[in-house]
């Protein structure tokens, strides 16, 4: 499968962005309650952030079609640490072996941006995501104080990008 990572084209593909976010929200919290508030201003945020080099909004293309979405940035509250907001594959592409390429793309982009670490927040009830992250070396860091159902996980980039994998 030929995989490419392309900047999101909001004019053409915003509805797919919403679809990805809606499903990811449901996978995380097993409800759509709160999604409307969560997604408010989403298009404007993407549009503004796409002009900043620290932000990465990418669609994952395989064999000429969009199969997923990545959202991440090269900064966070922790020093030298990037932050992943979304790793998403549409349901029919989960379990197809694309996960390794997604993880590698994020690691490479953030390592090139000067990050030594990357972190993300994941729902404790999203077992599929938790298993995915642990399989790729993410480790529990601490509970997320902003959301009682989620925890922060962290991955060291240097050991993975400098020949570790």
TrEMBL record:
Coiled-coil regions, chain positions: none
PANTHER family the record matches: ACETYLTRANSFERASE
InterPro entries in UniProt: Acyl_CoA_acyltransferase, GNAT_dom, YpeA/RimI_acetyltransf
Source organism per UniProt: Aeromonas lusitana
Protein name as catalogued: N-acetyltransferase
Pfam families, per the entry: Acetyltransf_1
Superkingdom of source: Bacteria
UniProt-recorded Gene Ontology molecular function terms: acyltransferase activity, transferring groups other than amino-acyl groups
Gene3D superfamilies to which the protein is assigned, alphabetical: 3.40.630.30
Alphabetical keyword list: Acyltransferase, Transferase
Domain N-acetyltransferase: 3-158
